[in-house]
Amino acid sequence: MSAEPLLTQRVLDRIVQSPHNLIVLDSANVAETIAQMRMLAMRGGTSVYAWEAESGIASLRESGLHVPGSRRFGDALRYVLQGVHFGIYLFVDADAHLRPGDTLLLRRISRMPSANGRKLVFVGNRFELPEELDGMFERLAAGTENIQALRLRDGRWVQ
Amino acid sequence: MAGAGDHRGGALIVAADRDDRRALFDALDVVGFDAIYSAKDRAQAREFLAQDIQVDLVLLEMRDDTADALAFCDELRRTEVAADAPIIGILGGQGGPWRPDSLPPGLVEWIASPVKRDDATARIKVALAARSTGAARSSGSAAQGERYQFAFDGSLDELALVDPASGRILDVNTAFVQRSGYARTQIVGSSIDGFDADLSPHRRDEVNRKLARDGSVQLRGAKPRANGSSYPVEVHVRVAVQEGRVVHFYQFRDLAELDRHQQALDMLVRLARASAHEDGVEAALKVLVDWLALDLAVVFEASAEHAGEEQALCFYQRFGASEDGPARMRGAVLKRVLAGKDVVHMAHAWRLSDGELVRSQRFECLIGIPLDGERGDCLGALLVARRDALDDGAALEALRVAARTFALELELRHSRDQGRASGLMDPLTGLPNRLLFNDRLNSAIHEAHRTSEMFAVVFVDLDRFKNINDSLGHAVGDQVLAAVARRLRGSVRASDTVARYAGDEFTLILRHIVQRDDVARIAEKIVRAMEVPLQLAGGLELSMTASLGLSFYPDDATDAERLLKHADVAMYSAKGMGRNNFQAYVAVPEESHRQRLALEAKLRQAEKNGELRVFYQPQIDGKTEDIVGMEALIRWEHPELGMISPGFFIPMAEESGLIIAIGEWILRAACHDACRWQRRFGLPLRVGVNLSALQLRQPNLVQIVETVLRETGMEADLLDLEVTESISMKSIPNLLETLHSLRDLGCGISIDDFGTGQSSLDYIKRFPADRIKIDQAFVRNIGVDPDDEAIVQATISMAHNLNRVVVAEGVEIEQHLEFLRAQGCEVLQGFLFCRPLPAASFENLLQERARLLGAATALPATHT
């Protein structure tokens, strides 16, 4: 078993249900988190994509399926912004590619209507977004869960 | 001017303050820039400028370093990327060497720090618009004089332009001409002295001096009309420049109109103040009556359920007030208003209206305005009438404002009523819940006591309902409960109460009973109604029967608790008779006594036959709402009689001494289960087990507990032994020593049912308890009885001062939870969270929790 706690379906659910379109997923082991995301995506059928500088955006469920012209970080953001279908986009090592001019694109993604929502998830170890995005994203942890979020009502656990 | 979606290019922010940068970024985002570069100082800005970017606007913080700031502006001008970009300065609070009223070279506008987003957005837009229209402005100056002519001509105030030297009028607007009554040719060229106000020569000199010194002056006076009359005006005069020459610009405002507006404003303020308290409607109506000199005013509240039964919330009649006044206002007018239509007769109302009161009182003015709710439904009507006609248009508007206020008040009342009701209704069946049932039962007892009437309480328990839940699932169980609720409701009169008491138990109050046979007939009807097979969704057909127990007020009992208990006993008797029937409570007949002895014999066998069950009710942390423990509760599941209520068999067990064996059995079972769950789920759950008075008299109780702990491997500090407060210290020898010994083992001690027994401070001080459990009787009345709220509050406070943890039992609705949490109650228990569950279901609950937290798969499931 990996050293990092298992990424649960609940984290994926929280990403989907998040009121924000931008999410920072803290993970000490990014590769492991992506691998677990892939497992969850394949098992549950959720549309999850991952962006890497070398290959651009690729589907996690169908390996080898790349989005052409999405290798540059800004282009990848525009692709997400212009999409119409639901999808979770994982961005790995984004801090090295994030330029000041990209902040506006991220703000526009954050303002996208939630129907057919696209979720942009930055996976990293204490990844920081620019200050202009304060209040526009949610920070989740890949391993640790928020126990306080569970409440017991009429014999059933609710979140 | 360009729209928000137009291409704006790039913008550069240079500001040290983080909040300023954020506000400016937001403003630029609103304006629609394609790229925004945010630098905290000029060095970082230079880094941006060195890159391949385009800057079309610069927002530059101007600090004390005047020369450096201006040099940086020059530097910007020399760059390729920002050479043409307008620069807006960010002016600090102190200002430094910069002044807000003068722009240094190179800057087009100031934005004040701390930056406000909306202010910055407006200034940026203006600066950009000025830049894009700059050429047009310089070439189009000839047309500028005509640009605002429409404003002068169209103003509702009277305006005049006067030559300062001669005092002759150069031009006036249409309003001036119309109100003065003179022809324009008579006015233009004449002296302003004849129009501006009725001033003495001395006062006029003074006004002129002030005008020359300050550039403006304000005075009051009377303005003449052509017909010789005059009217009060307020005059503003200011020096202005028109087409390069200095003129005096006069503005006349009708004071009477101002007064009306002032009065209307005063009325609105009084209206707002009046509606802010309980008697708001009456007070607000009084304000209207005084202001409009009304002779009659009434606010009706529409009835949502029964059309035509609208009630007069508030009524005022100046002359000949009578009790039937509101009734005399009913008729076609009220009906029309309640249908959502205005009725407005400012004059001649008595000739036009068919209202009896309107005609008899010869009201000239009659106005009816519907009180519309948020959803557009009509909540009521405001009707007002006057003997004199009303010619003030503002009055109608004011009445509309008042109507809106009344509508909001009605809406608020409805919402409050609905909120109150939702906490008292069972959401699944729509029937009153236990809380409301208890309240109604108490009311029925009070009323029956007063009127000497008889009524019946019926306890209905579905036969083998548990099997349905277990085999077909809770969804089907819920459908059955809803169907049963409908059948019960359909079997009784509208005046009777049907409530869902708990789970599959329903309770009824049958009022106004003349003879017992009437109740027997209703009970028979219910039994028959229940037998009819149920058609559920999905084509499922189910056969369901019920057992009913009856008790009568006042014959069987005169208090709620015993009435219910007797109905419960009678219900078990019905179960014992083979289910699917009803039985009335029989006081102490021979037959019942024999049954009791037989049952006692069965209880002796119950433990050996494996008929006893431990149910667990979760206890919740007041802050986190996560599970922290559970109370172990005994249940007896008889193979023929079904589940037997502990309220029935525990007293029997206590009387027969069986409680000692049963008590030890439940202690062992609870420790065993708790220990297993701790190992399986890694949860240190604290389990509470009740100790009866008989157990506490046992000389070897401490040894028994010690043995159970050792045998089950249970950690002593997770065992909580609950002792009821009503137990008498004197009646049990060595009670305190026994409790101290149990604590020495490491066990916790709780005072159970706190508030119902001794409640003496000395008792609490001496009693070696770690926790105090507030009795559910008090908790249930939170939000209902302020006295009980005060008792709960005081108990928690006292317990905390004595370093005792507080556990609240009987938490049934969110309101209880909120109150207890606000008081700092540490542990909560009640139906809001979970009813008592069999061990297997409780384990499922923990399993589900673990699954949701994602820990289940990571933790090995060890079974013993």
Task: Outline the biggest β-sheet of chain B.
Answer: 8 strands, mixed, barrel
The helix/strand series of chain A, from N terminus to C terminus, equals HEHEEHEHEEEE
From the 3D structure, determine the CATH topology of the largest domain in chain B. Answer: TIM Barrel
Q: CATH superfamily of chain A, please? A: P-loop containing nucleotide triphosphate hydrolases
Question: Helix count of chain B, per DSSP?
Answer: 32
* CATH fold node name of chain A: Rossmann fold
CATH class of chain A: Alpha Beta
Write the CATH architecture name of the largest domain in chain B. Answer: Alpha-Beta Barrel
Task: Give an overview in words.
The complex is a heterodimer of chains A (159) and B (864). Chain A has 159 residues and is of the alpha/beta class. Helix content of chain A is 27%, strand content 24%. In chain A, helix 3 runs parallel beside helix 4. Chain B is α/β, with parallel strands linked by helices. In chain B, 45% of the residues lie in helices and 23% in strands. Chain B contains 32 helices and 32 strands. In chain B, helix 11 packs antiparallel against helix 16. Chain B is extended. The N terminus and C terminus of chain B are likely disordered. The interface between A and B is medium-sized, with 27 and 36 residues.
Annotation keywords:
A: 159 residues, two-stranded antiparallel ribbon, 4 helices, globular, disordered N terminus, B: 864 residues, Rossmann fold, Beta-Lactamase, 8-stranded mixed barrel, 5-stranded parallel β-sheet, 23% strand, extended
Summarize the structure.
The complex is a heterodimer of chains A (about 160) and B (about 850). Helices cover about 25% and strands about 25% of the residues of chain A.
